[in-house]
Design a protein that fits this description.
The protein is mostly helical. The chain has one domain. It is built from 4 helices and no strands. The longest helix is centred in the first third of the chain and has 27 residues. It is elongated, with a radius of gyration of 20 Å.
């Protein structure tokens, strides 16, 4: 697959392709989401703090990687490394939620402390 643009003269980079810019902006916002999710996981206590740290690292990788891609499209060759780092925390967090879940005893104790019964009456 060639990196030449439509006219064959200009390389197809993030700066001259609207879809490339849009996806870089979307993934930058996704990086912000991962940072916030990681912070919430870190503070919650229902999920191991390691996953909060990994999600924050993933968010930073998405955020910084895509901002760099928007600023300097020649960095696109390093994008797979960024995706690999970013995906690690997200995949591990997803697997943890699917296989183990949250600490139910801690969740119920928190609900009792806040005066909620955990179910609708």
């Amino acid at each position: 697959m060639s990196l030449a643009g439509i006219d064959g003269k200009q390389p197809a980079t993030c700066k001259n392709r609207p879809a490339g810019r849009a996806s870089a902006v979307a993934l930058t916002l996704f990086g912000c989401y991962c940072l916030l999710l990681g912070w919430l996981v870190l503070r919650s206590g229902f999920i191991p703090k390691l996953f909060g740290i990994l999600l924050m690292l993933s968010g930073a990788a998405w955020l910084l990687g895509n901002l760099a891609l928007l600023a300097e499209p020649s960095l696109a060759k390093h994008f797979l490394l960024i995706v690999g780092v970013a995906a690690l925390g997200e995949i591990l967090f997803t697997l943890w939620l699917l296989l183990k879940g949250v600490d139910v005893a801690r969740w119920e104790a928190s609900a009792r402390r806040q005066g909620g019964s955990g179910s609708a009456a």
